[in-house]
Amino acid sequence: MQLKSIYIIILCLFHFALNAQQMHQNPRMKRIIDFDQQHYFAQNQKGKWGMCLASGRAVISMNYDTLLSLDILNFNPKDYSMERIHTNYFIGKTGADQTLLNLKGETVLTVNSIMPRMMGDVILVRKGASWGLAKTTGEFLLPAACTEIEWYDDILALKYEGKWKLFHPKQNSLRLEPSYDSVKEVINNTRYNQKESFLLVQEKGTWGLLDKHLKTIIPIEKEALKPLLAIDKYSKKKTQFLVKEAGKWGVLDINNQLILNTEYDAIQTVQWKVNTFEIAEQPLFVVTKNGKKGIVDAAGNIVLPIEYDVINYNETAFDGLFEVKVGTVSKQMQWNGTTTVELVLNP
Q: Does the keyword Cell inner membrane apply (predicted)?
């Protein structure tokens, strides 16, 4: 949410910066601001804004309280930089309404609010308390009847008639993805300034995974899909998932390959710590099968045989120590990062 807030603030700052552009003198105008060295934002003596040519001829009538350019904004989340590309469309505000205008001064549509970012040929608009997607032709791609919106990097999610629609502005075709009952973002900060991010989606009671290009990488057919992080020997954290199929649990990677087969009655992740996105960093799993417990690692290797009645450990701050029990006999096992060693207490 912090990144999304920064993103929105940067969008606004780009348009407030228009007021700081070079001004030109014209006795008939109160203010003139260069747009592209051919067209100029102009404010008349009554305080109304429009656009004119260098000759002074108006191309957008000076009837607006404010007038902003509608730009294509490419945001880089790694360094928070923003690339702004001008288009031939503008947002004029009059009273409580905002109007989409083209460079000919023609009105395309009027709504209560227009987000100052062009997404291909689509814009996000608001009517009352509801949102929608409109094309620069004035046609609505999605009616302004969406009750909620969320941003996932470049992907816009809109809740329409109880379902989530996903829109990616950089796709070649202007289309909305199929509707989903639930959409959740999964972010794995693998290394400094590097991350993996996905969308966990649910439809008709089953779960799947999309990448940030809206490509399905885990089919939407799993009974349950819960994100976790596993650690390999190079200390790069990989995104994996607890997966449930036919009532049994396993572990799945982002290539839809099983790390642990879906054959366990339960899988409990051994939680070393929790990162800022509340995804546990795990190298081990306590598994239950046919009433017995054991331990496997993130690669599927057996660490402790599945033959114990009880396996206890500190679930809030795991220190590598397990207490295992078969019948009435218990012992302690220490995990050193690669193997488990039985602790023997000297008399």
A: no
